[in-house]
């Protein structure tokens, strides 16, 4: 097992441990108001506190979405679960070439400030991995999916 793999796995466990569920009333009002403005029809809302951000998971228009807000209420990152047909052709081409043996499970589009990425969760040899791609299909990174 490589040292980089061990470091990455340790970092993922650390980050997961630092995210805590919150009650809605414990989220600052300006952040809740900003969320309501952006997603007035959101349902099944669940708030978490990350190290520096507030993260909300919800369903809007039938889509699973998560949004991270900083302490000032600015959107830091948005992740939307998408269908395979919404994944850019360049990403699908890379998946079909590099991961043809994998079973595709789900896809997400991640908007983080001025960057867009796509994530694919896939079963590779009976283990779930998350692989991140640029819109042009370049592989950014691959890591074991430790979240259930």
What do you see in this structure?
The protein has 148 residues and is an alpha+beta fold. The chain has 2 domains: 19-78; 83-148, Nuclear Transport Factor 2, Chain: A (Roll). The chain has 3 helices and 9 strands, in the order H-E-H-E-E-E-E-H-E-E-E-E. It has helices spanning 3-17, 29-38, 89-98; strands at residues 20-22, 43-49, 54-60, 63-69, 75-82, 103-112, 115-124, 127-133, 139-144. It has a 9-stranded antiparallel sheet. It is elongated and about 45 Å long. The two termini are 23 Å apart.
Give keywords.
148 residues, alpha+beta, 3 helices, elongated, disordered N terminus
Can you lay out the helices and strands and say which pair or pack?
Elements: H1 3-17, E1 20-22, H2 29-38, E2 43-49, E3 54-60, E4 63-69, E5 75-82, H3 89-98, E6 103-112, E7 115-124, E8 127-133, E9 139-144
Antiparallel strand pairs: 1-2, 2-3, 3-4, 4-5, 5-6, 6-7, 7-8, 8-9
Quickly name the level 1 CATH class of the largest domain. Alpha Beta
Remind me, CATH topology of the largest domain? Nuclear Transport Factor 2, Chain: A
CATH architecture of the largest domain: Roll
What is the H/E order? HEHEEEEHEEEE
Structural class of the helices, strands and pairings? alpha+beta
How far the N terminus sits from the C terminus, by CA atoms, comes to 23 Å
Mean of all residue-level pLDDT scores: 87
Number of helices: 3
* Strand order in the sheet with the most strands: 1-2-3-4-5-6-7-8-9
